[in-house]
Design brief:
The complex is a heterodimer of chains A (315) and B (688). Chain A is of the alpha/beta class. Helix content of chain A is 41%, strand content 18%. In chain A, strands 5, 6, 7, 8, 9 and 10 form a six-stranded mixed beta sheet that branches. In chain A, helix 1 crosses helix 2, helix 2 crosses helix 11 and helix 11 packs across helix 12. Chain B starts with a helix and ends with a helix. Classes of the chains: A alpha/beta (315), B mainly alpha (688).
């Protein structure tokens, strides 16, 4: 039903673009649907429908399939899913490169959005001065008890994503910085668990240190990343460094099945050109998280409001 | 000599001796990596990689078939097995989409018979959805035809609820894949059940496979399923079938075995051939158990609705995960209720269908014989007319007679949301004290105690119990289960899983048996509590994970509370059933001997119900294990966390399966001990 509606919109958009410019001669795209995965966070789902809408405006068929965000790379490799449009460096980098090493997945370029995936605190922690000196990491030495929880045994607790995201990176960093006897790192089961803890902490005005990233819906309420020693190549333990450094500015990549360029050359070219900025990713998420639109409606609205942004990708 | 004699005859003494040996080992063996009494070496640590490589070899390299792919203008090689599995996927997907498009419309079915190009060129080539009014009318008529007005009223109000709350489209998407997965599970279950009944060999082969399939957490086979069958609704359906079929096989076999030989002989004497004997005599006679199996299949299918969306099933489950990620608990709750309603509708309709008697003597006119079909055609017509009229009545492009979009329906989200907010605001501080006390005084010491257990002590304890309960054979069986886990690199993780499961099972059994005993005293309360059990069993557990985290944080307490909520279901259910099924004759005998209510409960009912309650505890352990693994979504450091991690591992298939087996073997160890013991008790009570 929804795809139907989108399709009407797309047909309209298509005829407009036909009138405006002649389509360059190129091998025609296959009419088989391009399979786009949807995961369980807003910006990703809206962007799936946005990219689907762009493909449809070019006359392609699109299909959406829910998939686990880690397991999806295996599916792209096997050709069951055609693309992935939000490959976050630190959370999915490992799965992405594992699948790439096995063959079948190609790197389809990087978004303009610069991302940061790092430990941080909600803005009120700094506003209320719960831990003076933040966001400099040295401040953590003095206020472990602010971040203590029921199971941390009096130490400060740092909430990290599941181990599948970056293994022992954070525990190693905490140890290397000499905070090991003041802080414990707890691995959460997933993003949902982190959001639930953040929401609960906010109600109480409690101090909390958690792994988070930007662009994200938390940007709206304010989230400050802790300033750890700057990242430099080789500073991590796995690369032979001392492991004290913080996260680098990260990338947000796009991945595709290796057959995609051959089966849908025009759509593939458009896909490699697609590049959203931090603000645009934020807009997409906000349409759902703040304006409470449905994901499909949000995508339709974004496409309608931002033709100037996405039209150039298609020709 | 006398001492040996008395140990042989007294179980308490045997257990005391076992405990003594256990504690001596526990305190004498110190932690040291090289001491084999402390931890076994991880001799089979390489197996996951091997398993992984062999699956990949079979899927991608074995028996390649070269074919020309016009789209990439090149030859490609596809392995035979891949062709086969993808063929199965395609067939399943077609069936699901066919049903889905009848319910919500689409083009895929038309594409299957023509091509995407055809659909692109012909704008009319679109299969329209049935208006929700028509589907509801159909279900109501079906309910009425099968079992009368009460069922019709229930089905009608449930579907109206789903439509009015704006969950129609996702609900129909879920329904369409359940309508394929559930009947397939029932058919497969029946077929294997009958086959196992006919052949001892098949039964012997199936039995351990079923054991593993029923105790293996569903997360662990998600990656293998995606590699073999791809992602999408078909993959979700396959994972669901793997999960839902084993109880059906079990119950079919159980029902068939209970048939007395006289019935079969009567069938043969009336000259039945093999098929008539099977379909006219055996299956109808075993109907009760088979229906319990169908009920279980439906419950299991909808319990999988959320998990299946990890690998591509569309519908309520996926929307639920999305809602939870935005912490919209109210919305998730509404979705969860829809899942439960679909389960109840399907369950009651299938029950009505199975209980329907055929009237062989009626001599009806055409109109009488086909009255339901005729009414339905009438409804179809009215519904379509209404839907067309709706397009002109309603403004804003939304046709409420056709489909109510999900953000345009009624919603109670605000209410639930503020309820959760209120709980966090008012209870957090108080619960924090409880949480801290529980963690520091109970959970951490218990976890340390489990992790400090030398492997030799664990083996002595478990195999010793096996020996006391079921002799040498049992000791060897449970010993080999443990050995498998001990030889992987995950023994410590398994100990953590065991600690959480133990704690949760103890609490669940206490709560479950108290609630069960209280409710079993009254017929109405019994009915009510069984309905609650049905509801909670299909209600997606993911929903209460979030409020629990908000109240207790990412801690073991949160995980355990979620586990206890779920694992109390079978403990309650089996206690109620056990107590209600005590033979009336024995109750009467008690009454004649002048027992009062309390004496009857303690001296007659509970002892007699005990074997059944033990089966309940057995199920409690299985349920608890499942939830401990799902607890990984909150944040644990046990086997579950590694299973979750396997979704992104390089050796994902192998790791997932091996970890799943570890969990299954923990479950099977307990299962084996309890079943042996319950069988013994039954014999002693003259119930077997």
């Amino acid at each position: 039903m929804f795809t139907k509606v989108l399709k009407f919109a797309a047909v309209g958009a298509f005829s407009v673009s036909m009138a405006a410019a002649t389509v360059p001669a190129m091998a025609a795209d296959s009419s088989k649907p391009i399979v786009i995965p949807t995961h369980n966070w807003s910006s990703q789902v809206v962007m799936a429908y946005v990219i689907g809408g762009i493909f449809e405006s070019m006359g392609n068929n699109v299909e959406y399939v829910p998939a686990d965000s880690q397991a999806v790379y295996e599916a792209i490799r096997n050709g069951d899913v055609t693309i992935s449009h939000e490959v976050w460096q630190s959370t999915f980098g490992k799965s992405f490169y594992n699948a790439m090493a096995k063959g079948g997945v190609i790197d389809a370029g990087t978004h303009a959005a610069s991302t940061l995936e790092e430990l941080g605190v909600p803005h009120y922690v700094i506003e209320k001065n719960l831990c003076p000196g933040l966001p400099k990491w040295e401040a953590l030495k003095e206020c472990a008890e602010v971040f203590a929880t029921a199971d941390s045994g009096g130490k400060g607790r740092i909430l990290e994503g599941p181990q599948s995201w970056h293994g022992d990176l954070m525990p190693n960093r905490i140890k290397a910085l000499g905070l090991g006897d003041k802080y414990v790192v707890k691995f959460a089961g997933g993003a949902d668990a982190i959001w639930a803890e953040l929401a609960s902490a906010k109600k109480e005005g409690r101090g909390i240190i958690t792994f988070n990233w930007t662009p994200n819906f938390t940007d709206a309420e304010g989230f400050d990343f802790i300033e750890f020693p700057a990242y430099a190549d080789g500073c991590r333990i796995v690369d032979g460094g001392d492991g004290k450094c913080g996260s680098p500015k990260g990338w947000l990549k796009k991945a595709a099945n290796y057959k995609f360029p051959k089966t849908h050359p025009a759509a593939y070219t458009a896909f490699t050109r697609i590049s959203f900025t931090t603000t645009q990713v934020g807009q997409m998420a906000a349409l759902v998280d703040i304006d409470k639109l449905s994901h499909q409606d949000a995508a339709k609205k974004w496409l309608a409001d931002n033709e100037a942004v996405w039209k150039p990708f298609t020709n | 000599m006398i001492m040996v004699q008395s140990i042989k005859s007294s179980r308490p003494l045997q257990f005391a001796l076992l405990a003594a040996v256990f504690f001596i080992l526990y305190f004498s063996v110190g932690p040291s990596e090289n001491n084999i009494l402390w931890r076994f070496p991880d001799l089979i640590a390489g197996v996951p990689a091997m398993l992984n490589n062999s699956v990949e070899f079979l899927m991608f390299e074995w028996m390649p078939i070269e074919s020309y792919n016009a789209e990439i203008e090149d030859y490609e090689e596809t392995a035979l097995l891949r062709q086969i599995t993808r063929g199965i996927s395609g067939a399943l997907l077609f069936c699901i989409q066919f049903i889905r498009e009848i319910l919500v419309g689409g083009v895929k079915t038309i594409v299957a018979f023509t091509s995407w190009d055809f659909v692109d060129e012909n704008e009319w080539a679109y299969w329209p959805a049935l208006p929700w009014t028509v589907v509801t009318a159909f279900a109501v008529i079906l309910g009425y035809a099968l079992s009368g007005r009460w069922l019709a009223a229930f089905v009608g109000s449930a579907l109206v609820y789903i439509a009015v709350f704006g969950q129609w489209a996702p609900a129909m998407e879920t329904l369409s894949f359940v309508l394929i997965a559930a009947p397939l599970s029932v058919l497969l279950g029946l077929a294997f059940g009958v086959w196992a009944y006919k052949s001892q060999t098949v039964e012997a082969i199936l039995s351990p496979l079923l054991n593993v399939a029923q105790t293996m957490p569903h997360f662990s086979y998600l990656v293998p399923v995606t590699v073999l069958f791809g992602v999408g609704d078909h993959a979700g359906a396959i994972a669901t079938i793997i999960f839902a079929t084993p109880p059906m096989i079990r119950l079919t076999l159980l029902g068939l075995k209970a048939i007395s030989p006289e019935v079969i002989e009567a069938g043969m004497m009336s000259g039945c051939n093999r098929f008539q004997l099977l379909f006219r005599v055996l299956i109808p006679t075993a109907r009760h158990n088979i229906l319990v199996g169908v009920n279980q299949v439906i419950m299991q299918c909808l319990a999988m609705a959320v998990i299946a969306s990890f690998i591509g099933a569309k519908g309520l489950g996926f929307n639920l995960l999305l809602a939870l990620n935005q912490l919209r608990i109210g919305q998730a709750l509404e979705l969860g209720i829809c899942i439960v309603l679909i389960a109840l509708i399907l369950d009651r309709l299938s029950l009505g269908w199975a209980n329907k008697q055929i009237d062989y003597f009626a001599d009806l006119k055409f109109i009488e014989r086909h009255k339901y079909a005729l009414i339905f055609i009438g409804c179809l017509f009215v519904g379509i007319v209404l839907a067309y009229a709706g397009a002109y009545i309603f403004e804003g492009g939304i046709n409420y007679f056709y489909l109510i979009p999900h953000n345009k329906g009624i919603t109670t989200e605000q209410f639930w949301q503020s309820g959760v907010d209120w709980m966090v605001d008012n209870w957090y501080q108080g619960l924090q004290v409880f949480n801290r006390a529980l963690i520091t005084n109970v959970l951490i010491p218990m976890k340390t105690a489990y992790l400090g257990m030398p492997v030799s002590a664990t083996f002595v304890l478990v195999m010793g119990i096996g020996y006391i309960v079921g002799g040498v054979r049992s000791a060897l069986v449970v010993g080999s289960f443990l050995l498998f886990i001990a030889l992987t690199e995950w023994w410590d993780r398994a100990l953590i899983t065991a600690y959480m499961t133990t704690f949760a099972v103890i609490v669940s059994v206490i709560i479950g048996s108290i609630v069960g005993i209280l409710c079993a005293q009254n017929a109405l309360a019994t009915k009510f509590i069984l309905l609650v059990c049905d509801t909670l069993q299909t209600f997606p557990s993911f929903i209460y994970l979030i409020p629990v985290i908000m109240l207790f944080g990412v801690t073991d307490t949160s995980v355990l509370i979620a586990v206890i909520i779920y694992a109390t279901i079978p403990a309650t259910r089996y206690t109620v059933e056990g107590l209600r099924n005590v033979p009336q004759a024995l109750q009467d005998a008690g009454s004649m001997s002048g027992v009062n209510r309390m004496q009857r409960l303690l001296k007659i009912e509970l002892p007699l119900a005990f074997p059944h309650i033990m089966l309940g505890i057995n199920q409690t352990v299985v349920f608890a294990l499942f939830m401990v693994i799902i607890g990984a979504m909150i944040g644990t450091d046990d086997l579950g966390q590694f299973i979750l991690k396997a979704l992104s591992d390089k050796n994902g298939i192998g790791n997932g399966l091996m970890l799943g087996l570890c969990v299954a073997f923990i479950g099977l160890t307990v299962d084996h001990l309890i079943l042996r013991w319950a069988a013994d008790r039954k014999k002693a009570l003259g119930l077997a």
